[in-house]
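Q: Could you write out the predicted structure for this multi-component system? I'm mainly interested in how the pieces pack against one another.
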Amino acid sequence: MLKDITIGQYFPGDTLIHKLDPRVKILTSILFIVALFFVKDFYPYIFIFLFIVAVVKTAKLPVKFILKGLKPLMFIIIITFVINLLFTKGEVLFSLGPISITKEGISQSVFMALRLILLIVGTSLLTLTTSPIALTDGIESLLSPFRKIGLPSHELAMMMTIALRFIPTLLEETDKIMKAQMARGADFESGNILNRAKSLVPLLVPLFINAFRRADELATAMEARCYRGGEGRTRLNELKFDRKDTTVLLSMVLFFGFIMSTRYW
Amino acid sequence: MIIEIENLNFIYNPGTPFEKKALDDISISIEEGDFVGLIGHTGSGKSTLVQHLNGLIKPTSGKIIIDGVDITNPETKMREIRKKVGLVFQYPEHQLFEETIYKDIAFGPKNLGLTEEEVEARVKEAMELVGLDYETLKDRSPFEISGGQKRRVAIAGVVAMKPKVLILDEPTAGLDPKGRDAILDEIKKLYERENITIILVSHSMEDIARLANTILVMHKGKVIMHDKTREIFKSADLLEDIGLDIPQVTKFMKEFKNRGHDVREDCLTIEEAKEELIKYLRGTKNA
């Protein structure tokens, strides 16, 4: 159940996409998100879809892995779909009591659902092809110009690294505690919502206690190795921007610029 | 036969780059009342195997029959399996969650659907079995007692479900020698009093030698040996090849014999070795 979430799960590989500078991939993702919200017709989705397919093929990601990442968010997608379907005004196609389905409603709800799906899949490509460490290095480097206005870019990146680093650990721990409680007869899957929420107590209490204990131990371990923030800190792997990165970034700017421009045609 | 496993296979994350064959065609049977020591290198599949035994992991293929019930059959009720097989995980104190020790131990029995009186009787009995004083401890928080006591509470939580098979995954990991001995003594007491089947996973050959009467040796997802304790520790070379060892005292007796003294080399505990050495020394003196 919990293992289905692909966000923050790196799929190792040795392809062009994997080797790109993380900053290129982060900027591309930002462009992707912005461009996606510029789209107001159906047809630019085709280009975006082809873009995703191209990336998935190049990075040799299994399609099943990506679809699995959509599953936990299916609920949000369905709610968006239903709300748009029911509450969009326009030409009524048919109605059932107080509920009426409009032509605009259908097209709007499909449009919104597609946008969400593309958004989730597109952004998960970043975390699937970039290791968490490379990702935070990239974020730190991109944020560093803002240090002048007091943004603690190193600390933010460190917090993100730690958070990402502990996602699998916490998932594993959740799995372990869940199993331990199931071995004592706990049931996490049946019953009504109230009972199910109650049945989470034996899971959440130990999980929180362990998370705090872990955080405390980690802080001690970091201080024992003289960690005192970003100032004067050097790194093992410096990020390097080479020709292929420039080429890719420029083509991405052009591609998404084109997508954005479709709004004004 | 209380446990029968036939051609059990298990693969982690099939179809991804993380795919890993954890169990490879395992077929074993365990007799009722056995005290089984399960040993193997880290990553040899011990934990995966024991989790199969109470249905926490579903096998990729193969059959597991416990006390006549096929637990791999999807129609078997989980509650029935959990009643039969109790599993104490590594560092079980990390799963404590209730406000009081009583409530925490009662969690398992309550889930079995027992009445209030039965639950109370079981909690009392389980606490006594693991060496915790019921009256003074039942209303205390499980978070304010010592590590060794926490572990006892967690073990009591499983013991209170009265399983026919009790599996303990490294119950002494991270405890000081005193705490370790105390827990092992209680396990021994439990085994003798309740007449149950116990599977003990451990890295300590001394602990295994002291308690278990049969041993399962796992290596790379396979069971490579399954025999009486004494027989297993005779194959020191094979065990060393796969990164395991024999008890120190067995090693000593072996070496002593190699140096030309006529002693038995299959002594498993210090007491046994002591007897043997006294006998040997008396023998040489009289001769």
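A: Regarding packing and overall arrangement: Residues 1-7 of chain A have pLDDT under 50 and may be disordered.
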